[in-house]
Amino acid sequence: MKIVTICGAGIGSSGILKVNAEKALDALGLQASVVAADVASVRHVSEDANVILTSQEFVEAIGDTYAEVIVIRNHFDQGEITAAVDRALGEH
């Protein structure tokens, strides 16, 4: 399984989401690779992704994808991120 975190430059908020998604996976006992990327490279990076975590402002730029796109409102809310990862990947 693969999670991609997206932001404008691929180093700021996507980096925060990456770290928090990894914490969520550990807490849930799930295995997945987590990759932080910028919005310009999202199509290439997310080709084999199961989930994309991002802010509302980047959803339209993601375009068509087979991955489940999840909008995270607060990148520092570990509960929100853990719940989103659990909903998306917990049943697999």
TrEMBL record:
Q: What's the domain of life for this entry? A: Bacteria
Pfam families attached to this UniProt entry: PTS_IIB
In this protein, which residues make up the domain named PTS EIIB type-2? 1-92
A single GO molecular function term of this UniProt record: protein-N(PI)-phosphohistidine-sugar phosphotransferase activity
Does the entry feature the keyword Iron, yes or no? no
**Coiled-coil ranges (or none):** none
What are the BP-aspect GO terms? phosphoenolpyruvate-dependent sugar phosphotransferase system
Record's keyword annotation contains Transmembrane: no
- Report the InterPro entries cross-referenced here: PTS_EIIB-like_sf, PTS_EIIB_2, PTS_EIIB_2/3
Question: Keywords of this protein's UniProt record, alphabetized?
Answer: Sugar transport, Transferase, Transport
CDD domains, A to Z: PTS_IIB_ascorbate (cd05563)
Q: Which SUPFAM superfamilies match?
A: PTS system IIB component-like
The name under which this protein is listed is PTS sugar transporter subunit IIB
Origin species: Curtobacterium pusillum
Source taxonomy lineage?
Bacteria, Bacillati, Actinomycetota, Actinomycetes, Micrococcales
